Amino acid sequence: MTAILLLALTANGPAAHADSLKEATAAFAKKQYAAAIKLFRPLAEKGNAIAQYKVAVMHRMGLGVPKSEKEARKWSRLAAKQGNPQAQTLLGSLYYKASGEESPDTVRAYMWYEVAAAQGNAEAKKDLALLTKELTPQQVSEARDKAQKCKSSGYEQCD
């Protein structure tokens, strides 16, 4: 009996995650941010890259949670290292437009934009073009080398 119950719970795991993600996304779309964060956070903590990205966005903008660049960076980095191009773009912007306790890191921003742009993210491509004008050729070369290392390592060697 216990084995059957465990099998039933395990079998419903991915479906339950999908339902929670769907509910969280719907709450977010309706601007019900307190409800959305309650649904996104457990999924994010379990490693769901989409939920991690949404939690990062919510912290970046102060939607249902205190505005925190540090938390936004933490959650976007987790999703970015799973290959989520939206999170990679967000992380790039967090490095580029850093405020508070962090200072801007344009080389790291370029690296993340480059990684996201390689996956076809249009926003990253646009941000990359703008940032390229601000960097020296040496900085661009360094950032591209870092982006290549990041991509070739499966996003493991990105910092």
Helical stretch count? 8
Overall form: globular
Distance from first to last alpha carbon = 48 Å
Name the beta content range.
under 5%
Q: What's the average pLDDT? A: 88
Point out poorly predicted stretches. 1-13
Q: Strand tally, please? A: 0
Count of discrete structural domains: 2
Q: Which structural category fits the helices and strands?
A: mainly alpha
- Share of helix, binned: over 70%
**SSE topology string:** HHHHHHHH
Provide a short characterization of the protein structure.
With about 160 residues, the protein is mainly alpha-helical. The chain has 8 helices and no strands.
Explain the overall architecture.
The structure is a single chain. The chain is mostly helical. It folds into 2 domains: 80 residues; 76 residues, no CATH class. The chain is 74% helix and 0% strand. The chain is built from 8 helices and no strands. The radius of gyration is 18 Å and the shape is globular. The relative contact order is 0.09.
Q: Which key phrases capture this entry?
A:
disordered N terminus, 159 residues, 8 helices, single chain, mainly alpha
SSE blueprint and pairings:
Layout lengths: L1 H28 L3 H13 L3 H13 L7 H12 L4 H12 L9 H13 L3 H11 L4 H16 L7
